[in-house]
Amino acid sequence: SGGRTPKFLIANVDGLLSPRGEELVLRTGRALGCSTEIVPLTTPTWDVHYTNQWNATVFARLLLLDRLPGRFLWLDSDTLMLNGWQQITERSEELFATSDVIACAVRDRDATLARMAKAGNNEAFVASHGAYVNAGVFVGDPQRWQAEGMHNRWMDVVTTQTRRGFEYFDQDVLNLILAGRIGILPQAYNHIVAEPAMG
Prior knowledge:
Strand order of the largest sheet: 3-5-4-6
Structural class: alpha/beta
Number of helices: 8
Mean pLDDT: 89
Radius of gyration: 17 Å
Helix content: 25-40%
């Protein structure tokens, strides 16, 4: 925001991005004229059983909150950044004016919320009191996160996620431990392309 050139951070979790992959990322960034940095991250040793396409990289958002010095915008790799996407940081700054906000995101889609409400067993959804967010577009404040001691809290939650009815790994962790501390961004900033446009 404010005309600043964005710096792109690529998380390399547990070395899953090879040295050749890292070089390709940096070369691509240079070709596009972008400031790009690889951030090596290491997950603790957990007995976490991943499902579907998930692996350790799913915890990158949480590891970045533990490590980075300042606010950052996370975009899932399948996010289409349309004209005006930079407004997300401006809208987030307005929400961060409230000192208890640690992160900003968009409420999850109605179909997902209705399904979770019907099942009733996801502790993160229950704790959110209807403000359960999708973390695909996410602005985090690491300084507030770290000051609140979230590092230890989220790791404890991960080790007990199975009995908590979690489906979405770090997204559920964020919704549980940040319940009431997430600023809600307009839904237009994160919706599925196949669904009707929302503004």
